[in-house]
Design a protein that fits this description.
There is one protein chain. The protein is of the alpha/beta class and 471 residues long. It is 30% helix and 25% strand. It has twelve helices and 20 strands.
Length: 471
């Protein structure tokens, strides 16, 4: 073991959004001597292979949609060249690198010592870091935060599965695929399927059941599946994959063998891109949890309570490595609250993130927003007789100039409980839902009742006004 080379109050392992938020607050606001260790690029999944480059790509896909829709408004737009995916990709990479630099400067400004290397626990207070040049140093810390995030899975039981990529590999693509297959039914698969389709790829989405986004309200599941099919995305229901093999004489192409509802006896499809979006595992493989005695659940995730405590005194954990709610703003909020509790004094001794009523958005086409309970969850908790559901279904005015067959849906659902009709669930899909939900999320978090929404004068003409005029 290398001799102790550094000591600190607070050691953060993982330079993603949650870890950095906690480190910066602990150092800058509360004066804790803090070290942050990251083995990859600063910013974690969100900045490098998640939310940020995903939203940039979604913006490109939305522009492609707008160019198509412009004809309905009388614009005659001639395409002089196809979408330059390679140039777009490199500009997106430049933007991400810029953010990496900003993150590093922020650490320096907040007096957080940043070490680039791979860390693993030696004990509950000591960590060994393997630096980029292979040298090792040992850090002794009074408190340690494990915020190492996660990584996407590739199935191990399907021959040839390694020919596919994951969401990480999506951002390495230099050429837009001609025919892409995505396997998965969560928000990553759904978002990327929409982006591929609107940027021009023939898109096939393979799901295990009848619908995707199965953690969302049934209204969302049914409507988005139907809308994706209307747009021309091929949905393969009740599907399973058995083998993937390279195609001779066609570099980059592969043949995937599968079964689905339409082909229960089996079928195959040639693809030049296969993307697995079947879930994520915690980044714990060489973290040394066993040396410090940190408990994990059956899926390998670090077990942490609502205060981010692990079972080991002075070792804490948050973010995707815990698998609680895998959203960047959740990790950031949890990290800041943890820094307050650990170093902010008696005033913050009970500080923690409230994990209830956290809004989330799926950047599908159209967008989906959700906060609170789904209708089945509300029925289970309160009883069907004790809830009231308000719904609306319409075509947004933006699409007024388009043929009816080309108009995407807008649907909203408000779920209220008890005599007071407290809002316990809000689910919206349609243009602008991501921006709209943030404001309504505040209202739900404050305990809004149906009559509170009714008391707000509508802004006309908008889609959002439907939420304050529901009958």
């Amino acid at each position: 073991m290398a001799p102790i080379s550094k000591e600190c109050d607070f050691l953060v392992i993982g330079g993603g959004s949650g870890g950095l938020a906690c480190a910066r607050k602990a150092s800058a606001q509360w004066g804790a001597k803090t070290i942050a260790v990251e083995s990859n690029r600063l910013g974690g999944t969100c900045v490098n292979v998640g939310c940020v480059p995903k939203k940039v790509t979604w913006n490109a896909a939305a522009i492609a949609e707008t160019l198509h829709e412009a004809a309905s408004y009388g614009f005659q737009i001639k395409e002089t060249a196809p979408f330059d995916f390679r140039t777009f990709k490199h500009k997106r990479d430049d933007y991400v690198r810029k953010l990496n630099g900003i993150y590093e400067r922020n650490l320096n400004n907040d007096k957080v010592k940043y070490i680039h290397g791979r860390a693993h626990l030696l004990s509950k207070n000591e960590v060994e870091v393997v630096l980029d040049d292979g040298q090792k140093e040992t850090i002794r810390a009074k408190k340690i935060l494990l915020a190492t995030g996660g990584h996407p899975n590739i199935p191990k039981d399907i021959p040839g599965s390694e020919l596919g990529i994951t969401s990480d590999g999506f951002f390495d693509l230099e050429i837009l695929p001609k025919r892409v297959g995505l396997v998965g039914a969560g928000y990553i698969a759904v978002e990327m399927a929409g982006m591929f389709h609107h940027l021009g790829s023939e898109t096939h989405l393979f799901i295990r059941h009848e619908t995707f986004l199965r953690a969302f309200d049934p209204m969302v599941q049914e409507t988005i599946v139907g809308e994706y099919e209307r747009q021309g995305i091929h949905i393969h229901r009740n599907s399973s994959q058995s083998k993937i093999e390279k195609l001779d004489g066609q570099p980059g192409w592969m043949k995937m063998h599968y079964k689905d509802k339409s082909s229960p006896e089996g079928a195959s499809i040639d693809l030049d891109c296969l993307l697995w979006a079947i879930g994520r595992n915690p980044e714990v493989e060489d973290l040394g949890l066993e040396k410090a005695g940190v408990d994990q659940d059956p899926k390998g995730r670090i077990i942490a309570d609502d205060y981010q405590n692990t079972n080991v005194e002075n070792i804490y954990s948050l973010g995707d490595v815990c698998g609680k709610i895998e959203l960047t703003p959740v990790a950031i909020a949890a990290g800041r609250q943890l820094a307050n509790r650990l170093y902010g004094g008696p005033e913050f001794k009970n500080a923690k993130l409230d994990y209830t009523n956290i809004p989330s958005v799926v950047f599908a086409h159209p967008e989906v927003g959700s906060i609170g309970m789904t209708e089945p969850e509300a029925i289970e908790k309160f009883g069907k007789e004790n809830i009231k559901v308000y719904k609306t279904n319409f075509k947004a005015m933006y699409y007024a100039m388009m043929a009816d067959s080309e108009k995407p849906p807008t649907q909203y659902k408000l779920i209220c409980a008890g005599e007071e009709e407290k809002v316990v669930g809000l689910h919206i899909l349609g243009q602008g839902s991501s921006e709209m939900l943030q404001g309504f999320g505040v209202a739900v978090k404050m305990g809004a009742r149906k009559r509170d929404l009714d008391s707000c004068v509508a802004i006309h003409p908008t889609s959002a006004e439907e939420l304050v005029t529901l009958k």
